[in-house]
Amino acid sequence: MSTASTRPPEGRYGRSPDERADRKLKIAGAVLGTALLALVGYFGYHYVGQNEISAQVITFQASDDAVRVHLEVHKDADARGYCTLRSQDTSGDEVGRADFRFDQRATRIDKMVTLRTTARGSTAELLGCHAG
């Protein structure tokens, strides 16, 4: 005696529903993966490629009404922009904030800037630099 096959004959009824579902899932995954990759690339380009000015605080010296900050700025030669500095007192209250412009054509600028404060500052913090 022979055993009857439980599978339909090959090619007679088309693809099984599982194969169709697998194909749709693969297409959806490829589309979503491509979109995610494009989004990460877009944000990466705007974060790295568009940030033409960077800086760091080298040293600072506080007095009762000002903080003198040695600021080192790196930028493209034709970039113009500003950096924002702030100072806080020992309790964490902000006592001074100012923007300092950098329009020189140099790619590296070492500059001592004076940040006026309302009380004695204990910090000199670089909040960021922006082109424009």
Task: Give your account of this protein's structure.
This is DUF4307 domain-containing protein. Keywords: Membrane, Transmembrane, Transmembrane helix. The chain crosses the membrane at residues 25-45. It holds the Pfam family DUF4307. The structure is a single chain. The chain is of the alpha+beta class and 132 residues long. It has 2 domains: 16-50; 53-131, Immunoglobulin-like (Sandwich). The protein has 1 helix and 6 strands. The protein has one helix at 17-49; strands spanning 53-62, 66-75, 81-88, 94-102, 108-116, 125-131. The strands form 2 sheets. A 3-stranded antiparallel sheet has the order 1-2-5, with no helix packed on it. Strand 3 and strand 4 form a beta hairpin. It is elongated and about 100 Å long. The mean pLDDT is 86.
Primary descriptors:
three-stranded antiparallel sheet, transmembrane, Immunoglobulin-like, 6 strands, membrane, 40% strand, 2 domains, DUF4307
Provide the fold topology.
Layout: H1 17-49, E1 53-62, E2 66-75, E3 81-88, E4 94-102, E5 108-116, E6 125-131
Antiparallel strand pairs: 1-2, 2-5, 3-4, 3-6
Query: What would CATH call the architecture of the largest domain?
Result: Sandwich
Helix content: 25-40%
Find the count of extended strands (DSSP E, 2+ residues): 6
Determine and state the CATH class of the largest domain: Mainly Beta
Average pLDDT value?
A: 86
Task: Give a quick rundown of the structure.
By secondary structure, this protein is α+β, with helices and mostly antiparallel strands. It has one helix and six strands, in the order αββββββ.
